[in-house]
Amino acid sequence: MGRRRSASVRGLASNIIGALLVLAGVGLVAMTSRALLNYRAAATRHGGELINLGTDAQPEAGQHGYMARIVATPRVVEAPRDPEFNLRVNTPVLTRRVEMFQWREVRIGDGVHYELDWVDRPLDASRFREPAGHTNPASFPISGRQFDAGLVQVGGFKLGPVLLHALPGSELALPDPKSLPENLAASFSRQGNYLVTSSHPGDPRLGDVRVSWEEVPLQEVTVVGRLDGDRLVAATDAADGRGYDVQVGDVPVLDMFPDLPEPPEFVAGARVLAVLLAALGAFVLLSRQRTRRDALLALGLGGLSVGIVASVLWIGGDSRTLGGWLAVALLSFLLTVWRLRRHR
């Protein structure tokens, strides 16, 4: 009687342990799948699933369409040039700024006074309260423009126009009077970071023009964008209305997109462990029947239980992942049927 009771207790304990192991495997794959689905759903708002390519990454097969994070200092392959002033600068974006020395109206409360200053747009003196004696030139002889580099790369990827213009920072570029065309060399002289038309640069007069250039500095940046072959572009279909981000330095993804949850780690390992736990639980449950102590049968049952649960969770999600779990469930089912027939 005591031996029967002891055997019954051991059998019950084995059933409980086996069932708990199967549940642990199923629970692990469910938790991992749910965390990954939540992360991907949040990532979709910013353009889709993101892969971290790290520093100075190069294009590889199978990356097309993913969002990617790359850390690198942009490399200018084809520098921009201002053809009118014959100025070429090693920068992603070169901007010409033109200002004219003009009258401007300054209002303080009910009072008004006028002063001459550098302004980057024509000021219509006819709109002044006291236009007499404060007439400004009607237009600028030259206008401001922006010049983009023909090719800029981060790592091995070419930057698309949106990301190119998103590169942060600005600093003055030094003009070179020696490179000026003859028609402009007669009119402009250098004063610090500017080219000016003033006869006396330190004492400008009404209508004098000064020109300066701003360049985007070459510095380490973190770029997030969509991979399009060997190009990095903005994801135009992103729900956040941007589909990209560019920040100075080596910036983690979660600092760039604070609304993203923590991505699950060791996903592949967790999936394998889930199948092994469920298989071990099935083996413990089968061990009460000596004729069924079959590791392959236990593996089939464990893979089948985990594969079915994971497949259900991925319905409507990533089709590639769903197909993978359906394949696991099908192979596990075939393995289970084969081993059961062998035992018969």
From TrEMBL:
The record's principal subcellular location, in a coarse class, is membrane
Q: Membrane topology type, per the record?
A: Multi-pass membrane protein
On whether Metal-binding is a keyword of this UniProt record, the answer is no
- Give compartment(s): Endomembrane system; Endoplasmic reticulum membrane
The superkingdom listed in its UniProt entry is Bacteria
Q: Which Pfam families match?
A: TMEM43
| Keywords for this protein | Endoplasmic reticulum, Membrane, Transmembrane, Transmembrane helix
- InterPro entries per record: TMEM43_fam
Q: Which residues cross the membrane?
A: 12-31, 266-286, 295-316, 322-340
Report if keyword Repressor is assigned.
Answer: no
Q: What is this protein called?
A: TMEM43 family protein
Q: Which organism is it from?
A: Rhodanobacter umsongensis
